[in-house]
Structures are given as C-alpha cells and as structure tokens.
Amino acid sequence: VKKTGNETALKNFNVKADAIDYGVDVAKRNMPSQLTIKKKDGQIEDERTYGDDPYPPKG
C-alpha cells in the first residue's frame, strides 16, 4: 500500500484482500481521498472515493 507521491510503501502484504482492507482504512481516515486498486501488471482494477468527490460524474 502506497500513498500518492511516495516511493516507499506504507505497508506490504502477502494477501491482496488484506492490502485492500488496510487501504480502505487509511483512505477513510484521510478523507477526502481516493483508493486505486491495481493488478500485478499495474493496470487499474478498481477506484474508490471516500468523502467529497471533487469531480462527481454527471447523470
């Protein structure tokens, strides 16, 4: 789990679900924030926004 702009990870995990749970907790404590979940190849798998969304979708 890394914070945007940091080279060093906040914490490393062997299980992806554990990393996501930790990331959600960090994101909720630092609202407004966005959690980006990536695949092993670096492609974005999911994005979650916590708190006020600065760019809400229309419609």
Radius of gyration: 12 Å
Low-confidence stretches: none
Average pLDDT for all residues: 89
Helix content: 10-25%
Structural class by sheet pairing and helices: alpha+beta
How many separate domains?
1
Quick one: how many beta strands?
Answer: 2
Please tell me what the overall shape is.
Answer: globular
The total count of helices amounts to 1
Q: State which percent range the strand residues make up.
A: 15-25%
Element-level helix/strand string: HEE
Q: N- to C-terminal separation?
A: 32 Å
Give, in spatial order, the strands making up the sheet with the most strands: 1-2
What does it look like?
InterPro entries: DUF2188 (IPR018691). This is DUF2188 domain-containing protein. It comes from Parabacteroides distasonis. The protein has 59 residues and is α+β, with helices and mostly antiparallel strands. The chain has one domain. The chain is built from one helix and two strands. The protein has a two-stranded antiparallel sheet. Strand 1 and strand 2 form a beta hairpin.
